[in-house]
Design a protein that fits this description.
The complex is a heterodimer of chains A (268) and B (617).
Chain A (H helix, E strand, L loop, with lengths): L6 E3 L7 E4 L13 E5 L4 E6 L7 H7 L4 E4 L3 H23 L7 H12 L11 H12 L4 H10 L1 H20 L5 H17 L10 H9 L15 H18 L21
Helix pairs in contact in A: 2-3, 2-4, 4-6, 5-6, 6-7
Chain B lengths: L1 E2 L24 E7 L5 H12 L6 H18 L6 E7 L3 E9 L11 H6 L6 H12 L2 E7 L4 E9 L10 E7 L11 E4 L5 H11 L16 H13 L8 E7 L2 E9 L11 E6 L3 H6 L3 H10 L16 H8 L2 H13 L7 H18 L7 H4 L10 H5 L2 H86 L4 H75 L3 H52 L1 H4 L1
Parallel strand pairs in B: 1-7, 2-8, 5-7
Antiparallel strand pairs in B: 2-3, 3-4, 4-6, 5-6, 9-10, 10-11
Helix pairs in contact in B: 1-2, 1-5, 2-4, 8-10, 8-11, 10-11, 15-16
The chains are: A mainly alpha (268), B alpha/beta (617).
């Protein structure tokens, strides 16, 4: 992903967040730009863009650094990662079948309550944050697939990550609470978008898939019904209304990748 | 039976997925997704609870939901998720089970209606449909061969189905994409319902059995215990009605207290207590009738001491605040006004006591003076009061009082009616205002939202532009390395050399151009001499012609003088011609030399141009 501030002066060190190299995983999309400290140049240099990923070789090369660094933007991403972990815990609990399982409607209600703080007061969310959330829920794609799509077309790779995440996000709001099924859906959309060709994931309605695949996912905030099919729009709209009516705090401020607090600086 | 596209009568749309097309536009749709049978029973309970008000056959409802999910999972292995929808309107409810299958062609579609309706199922799927047909009013089977999806919709009237007739089976084959579901009043996920209260509502109506419950908690003495048992028998909650407590100290009744509690919780959360001081029956009979005596007991300022519920006396400050409670103040006023006259005028005292009773009931609000519970608190001599009330005077007084009360009651009713109507009109007015304001807010929100989206788009575009700008900057800055500098220096050197060379060439060219100019000058001079040469030649030709003419004349005129003269002239002309011829030969030689020189100069210029193409341009 293109981003501004690829080099940061050393005096920004007080704002930077440490990321130990051994905590990084290969082929996992990064939630923020990743910087390395060049001691001779007295500068932080971005080695990976947000949504990019580290390969095994990259990790080996990075091991010569003591640590890598995230900008303060990472603070905005953390709530989404935490919520993603909670959602994963919920879905894994359903999958394991241990104890008395909650009813589907209880899971649905829990899901909505869990994710309500992730929306802005206006009921909007940026697709980038959705991709961070879904990466936590569904895990990483196979490394080969990631590399193939990335090497083929960088822009298509980013779109594939965002589109596959968005459709999973919508499916979760429509009560599709099955981790394997969601992973298959995500992979299907990622492959179709990144590598071209037909969508080969689970059946969820042709119009919905078509709308997601043929649209360009923007970076600005969108609402739940955007890029959905006619078959599911009414249901998503109903859910969004409940979120706005009961659960979303209208004063909630939207975190953004744009502007000073984000990584895409906007002039003026 | 088999249809392609058109909706069966009474249904809005069958070419759309889900239950929305099967109910009216005022209908409601509830939906859920099932990946397995976990929590299915509770989901069916929730649907039944939601539909309960409309009075469905709950047995059939549960049966259809369970059969729909479990039956489909059993017949089509790996067809999950099953998307379940329940639609309802005033006439009926519809259940829809939509699922995808791997192999669409394995199902025997030909003659499926005949097999099912003839009760001759050929496969498990036929049996499933038969089950639906047996328990529904109508079954719609939607088949999307392209999308490999099947949807079974069971439509059922409210109430119990009579008879065991099979429902009509409509088979709808989708040739293209399904239509968008028609709008309904409400679409809700089961998880968005208030399921806790819906599932609780049934148990709320049923009072739990009292078997095994402790009869009386914490009674201090036998009398209290009796009262509590009585209250329990009557089903009266102690906090809602009059509770009478009697406290005894040293086995003697020192004081009796009546604890009056309004049904509404008092602001200070303390029960309003009136402690009735012990008084002998004789004293009581002296004070007049029962009501006045009771009021006198209640209102006696010195006798009334506020206490806590547990019988403990309040602190002086608390006692003051308790004394300021309306019930106590009312009691005080009444005791002051009626206390003295009650003995002298029994009728008046009765009237005042009755009115004070009415007043006291007004001030105490919803206090239920359950006479059965008061019995224990009433002195035994008070039982003689009904005899006094039978006198004609008392009867007149009672009639007057009743008339007054009725008039007052009708006035109050009229007032309350007016109040209600004005309240209602105000309510409607406020509701209208509220709606208008909400509409305005909604519109503003919408505009705000669109503006925000526009701003965000602009921001994004700006960001992209900035990135491209930075990228271009980056490309320019990367060229500023040492190799480029070296290259630049070399290029500059080469340029200098080329400049020097071109300067020398320029000097050479100027020299040559000067030479060429000189040559041209000479050539122009030669051109002048050529013109003179041509004139001379013409002159010579004329003179030759004259000579010829003279020769001809000589041959025709033999005059000798003329001959000699002509001879001289001819000789002179021949001499002139010879001179001119010599001059001309000289000039021709000069011209030849100049031509050779010019050719040489031209060649030199050509050579210098070939050496430096820049100079040529």
């Amino acid at each position: 992903m293109n981003f501004t501030r690829k080099k940061l002066p050393l005096d920004r060190a007080k704002e930077m967040r440490v990321c130990p190299v051994d905590s990084l995983q290969a082929c996992v999309p990064l939630p923020a730009p990743l910087y390395a400290l060049l001691s001779t140049n007295q500068k932080f240099l971005a080695i990976k863009a947000p949504m990019d990923f580290l390969t095994e070789d990259d990790l080996e090369k990075a091991s010569k650094f003591e640590a890598l660094y995230f900008p303060p933007f990472i603070e905005q991403v953390i709530p989404y990662r935490r919520a993603g972990k909670s959602a994963l815990w919920l879905l894994e609990g359903l999958k394991s079948g241990e104890g008395l399982r909650p009813a589907p409607f209880e899971v649905s209600d829990a899901w909505v309550q869990m994710t309500a703080p992730l929306w802005s007061g206006e009921g909007l969310i940026e697709p980038f944050f959705v991709s961070v959330f879904v990466s936590e829920v569904c895990g990483a794609f196979p490394g080969d697939l990631m590399k193939a799509v990335h090497d083929r077309d960088l822009e298509a790779y980013e779109q594939a990550v965002m589109k596959s995440s968005w459709i999973v996000w919508q499916a979760l709001h429509l009560d599709f609470f099955d981790l394997d099924w969601l992973q298959a859906l995500r992979r299907g959309v990622f492959e179709a978008c990144g590598m071209g060709g037909r969508y080969r994931g689970p059946d969820i309605g042709e119009d919905w898939i078509r709308n997601v695949l043929l649209s360009e996912m923007p970076l600005h905030p969108i609402t739940l019904t955007d890029f959905s099919g006619a078959s599911v729009r009414t249901k998503l709209d109903s859910r969004m209304r409940r979120l706005r009516r009961e659960l979303i705090d209208s004063k909630q401020v939207l975190p953004s990748i744009l502007g000073e607090s984000g990584f895409l600086e906007v002039a003026g | 039976m088999t249809q392609k596209g058109s909706a069966p009568p009474g249904l809005r749309s069958v070419r759309s997925n889900g239950a929305a097309g099967l109910v009216s536009s005022e209908g409601r749709v509830f939906h859920e997704v099932f990946f397995d049978a976990g929590g299915l029973g509770r989901a069916a309970d929730l649907v039944a609870a939601r539909l309960r008000e409309s009075g469905p056959d709950e047995y059939v409802l549960h049966l259809l939901i369970l059969e729909g999910i479990l039956g489909v999972s059993r017949v089509f292995d790996g067809c999950t998720p099953i998307q379940f929808e329940c639609g309802m309107d005033e006439e009926h409810f519809a259940l829809s089970f939509s699922f995808g299958i791997r192999e669409f062609s394995v199902l025997r579609w030909d003659g499926i209606s005949e097999r099912v309706l003839g009760r001759k199922p050929g496969a498990a799927f036929d049996e499933l449909l038969l089950q639906f047909c047996e328990n529904s009013k109508r079954v719609v089977l939607k088949c999307d061969a392209k999308g490999k999806r099947i949807e079974i919709c069971a439509i059922h009237d409210w109430g119990r189905k009579k008879g065991k007739d099979l429902a009509a089976l409509d088979l709808v084959l989708f040739t293209g994409e399904p239509e968008a579901a028609p709008p309904v009043k409400e679409v809700t996920a089961l998880g968005d319902m208030d399921y806790s209260s819906l599932l609780k509502s049934r148990s709320k109506d049923e009072r739990p059995p009292v078997t095994g419950e402790v009869l009386v908690h914490g009674a201090k003495n036998a009398q209290e215990m009796v009262e509590r048992i009585r209250a329990k028998k009557l089903g009266i909650a102690g906090s809602d009605v009059v509770r009478i407590e009697a406290s005894k100290e040293n086995q003697e009744v020192e004081e009796q207290k009546i604890v009056l509690k309004a049904s509404e919780k008092p602001k200070d959360d303390r029960p309003k207590e009136i402690r009735i001081s012990k008084s002998s029956p004789e004293e009581s009979s002296k004070k007049g009738g029962f009501f006045s005596r009771l009021k006198g007991l209640v209102a006696g300022k010195q006798d009334v001491e506020p206490t806590r519920d547990d019988g403990e006396a309040l602190a002086p400050q608390e006692a003051d605040s308790a004394a300021r409670l309306p019930i106590h103040e009312g009691g005080d006023e009444r005791s002051e006004s009626t206390g003295g006259d009650s003995a002298s005028d029994p009728g008046r005292s009765e009237k005042s006591s009755a009115s004070s009773k009415a007043e006291s009931s007004e001030t105490t609000g919803d206090i239920d003076l359950a006479t059965g519970q008061l019995e224990s608190a009433i002195p035994k001599d008070a039982l003689s009061i009904p005899a006094e009330l039978q006198s004609p005077r008392a009867e007149r007084w009672v009639d007057n009082l009743t008339a007054e009360l009725n008039a007052e009651r009708s006035r109050i009713v009229e007032l309350s009616r007016k109040l209600k109507s004005s309240f209602r009109s105000k309510e409607i007015e406020f509701k209208g205002r509220e709606n208008a304001l909400q509409q305005q807010i909604r519109e503003r929100d919408e505009t705000l939202k669109t503006k925000n989206v526009q701003i965000n788009r602009m921001k994004e575009q700006l960001a992209k532009m900035q990135i491209s700008l930075e990228r271009s900057k980056m490309t320019t800055t990367t060229e500023d390395d040492s190799a480029t500098k070296h290259k630049l220096q070399q290029s500059q050197k080469l340029l200098q050399m080329a400049r020097n060379e071109s300067d020398s060439l320029k000097a050479r060219i100027t020299e040559l151009q000067d030479q060429a100019a000189k040559a041209n000058e000479q050539r122009s001079k030669n051109t002048v001499s050529l013109v003179a040469h041509q004139e001379l030649q013409k002159k010579l030709e004329r003179q030759a012609k004259q000579i010829e003419d003279l020769k001809r004349q000589k041959s025709t005129n033999p005059d000798e003088a003329r001959g000699a003269e002509a001879k001289n002239t001819l000789e002179a002309a021949q001499r002139v011609a010879l001179r001119q011829k010599q001059k001309m030969d000289q000039l021709e030689l000069v011209i030849q030399e100049q031509k050779v020189e010019l050719e040489r100069l031209k060649k030199e210029v050509e050579k210098s141009r070939e050496k430096d193409p820049k100079l040529a341009s």
